[in-house]
Design goal:
mainly beta, 295 residues, 14% helix, 16 strands, 8-stranded antiparallel beta barrel
Amino acid sequence: MVRLCATILMMLSTALLNAQQFSMSLGVFTGLTSTFTLDDGIANDPRYAAAYGVKFAPIGMNFGMDYEGFGFVVSPGIVNVGQNFYVVNTVGGQDGKREINLRYLNIPAGFKIHIIRLSFFKVSGVISLSAAYLLDGEEKISHTATKLKFPTEVYPILPEDYIIQYDGVAVPEVSNYTISSKSDFNSLQLFAAAGFRSDWDISNHWRLTFDFRVNYGLNDPRTDEYVAKVDAYQALYDMPGQRRDLFPQISLGISRYIDIEKSDKERKKKLKGSSKKYKEKRYPYPKPRNVKPKG
């Protein structure tokens, strides 16, 4: 990630030197995410069925630079990730919910290609790579007293009040049982994203922005220690399988922007860096005599 940031800064510097005109913007945004937890274990587990919803990406900041046909954008912000699942009993009924909640400080660095460029409006394709730092994370499950299909491999670790029967396991009511906590998740995650972005210049200095990107987690968000525990069937409500996070994000923001001409910048540089000394103006004719005539 450090190398990526250094590369982007070098590209920014080169573009700044060569471009005739560019704009800079700084602002804030808010948005929504619709998150999907792609977990092979959950997908193959008869105890769960997918539930769909949206979560807030409450606040973030946006810094952008736009040139003639391309641009750069860095937009750190808070995102909430993690899908919920219904708890399904042995006959297919829904008797509870499993909730996955991960909160990250996400710092994406993006590159834009302008597809449509008008004097007041731009539409761009965006690709980005981001480092996300875990702020909080947990998985909890709640269900009524019911009957569930546990894998036979976990029977040795079932609590005493979980009763094995011929067609499943009779379980008591559970409220906010912690499946995994923050320590079971990696503190750093990487996301790759692609999407579209539109910028509307509503005045000479203010810009509205609409951004839609699909983000994909490059690593399993859980720690190796927790994954090993699941693979050994030592987790009561989990089954072995890889996991990735996928979340489309819609953001709406407002920014203050300025347009900069290269000629203006060079003129200021010349005036500021000039080393010429002041020279007294000379008359085109002899100076007037300052000595009084004799006599």
